[in-house]
Amino acid sequence: MTRPPPTDPIAQTSSEASAWNIANGLTVLRLLLVPVFAIALFHDGGHNDGARVVAAAIFFIASLTDRFDGEIARKRGLVTEFGKLADPIADKALVGTALIGLSILGDLAWWITIVMVVREVGVTLLRFWVIRHGVIAASRGGKIKTFVQSLAIWLYVLPLNGVWHTIAAVFMVAAVVLALVTGADYVARAIRLRSGVAVQT
Q1: Is residue 140 classed as helix, strand or coil in its secondary structure?
Q2: What residue ranges define each of the domains in the chain, with the CATH number in brackets?
Q3: What is the distance, to the nearest Å, from the Cα of residue 149 to the centroid of all Cα atoms in its chain?
Q4: Less CB within 10 Å around the terminal CB: N or C of the chain?
Q5: Which pLDDT belongs to residue 197?
């Protein structure tokens, strides 16, 4: 089995570092920002442009913590079991809250939210399901999907109209396609891993 990319938190070997460290602190911050984001998103029924801009800013900051917590943990040897568990939970909580919130407000079709949420939860459970056999590291396609998905959600949260809304829709469709393609790849890799076949990253 090829060695997984070092940027994937789940693929990292846990260190002896205390769970009370800056990397885990950023992960916890992301979790704490989820309800704050939801409050801003739903303020005034989701029709307050100022509140939507605030919600978009919170989502952007929370997404940045996702990038930096893993990088800091890897470079400083702060990878912990808590971080490996909390990081994907924080990611899914943020994305899930945003998608479901947008659908409740009528800004995003429910079928898109269902597809994306099922994919997110499914892949996470899949990775933990095979963890005794090895690690399914985040693929390049998965990382591209995460970026496109975050960008699409951020654009949808902003109070955009006209051509900008069309651009947001294009990115969201691209995110759905990438989610389905990479999700199928994760399933195939999990089956191979459970069967004892080397998984290519």
Answers
A1: helix
A2: 9-194 (1.20.120.1760)
A3: 8
A4: N
A5: 56
Distance CA 69, CA 84 (A): 11
The one-character DSSP state at 17 is: -
| Sequence-separated (6 or more) residues with CB below 8 Å from residue 23 | 69, 70, 72, 73, 76, 78, 79, 83
How many other CB atoms are found less than 10 A from the CB of residue 143?
A: 14
Which residue has 């998103």 as its token pair? Answer: 41
Q: Which of 31, 52, 53 is nearest to 43 (CA)?
A: 52
Q: What is the pLDDT of residue 6?
A: 40
pLDDT one-digit tens code per residue, 127-155: 777 767 666 666 788 889 989 999 999 99
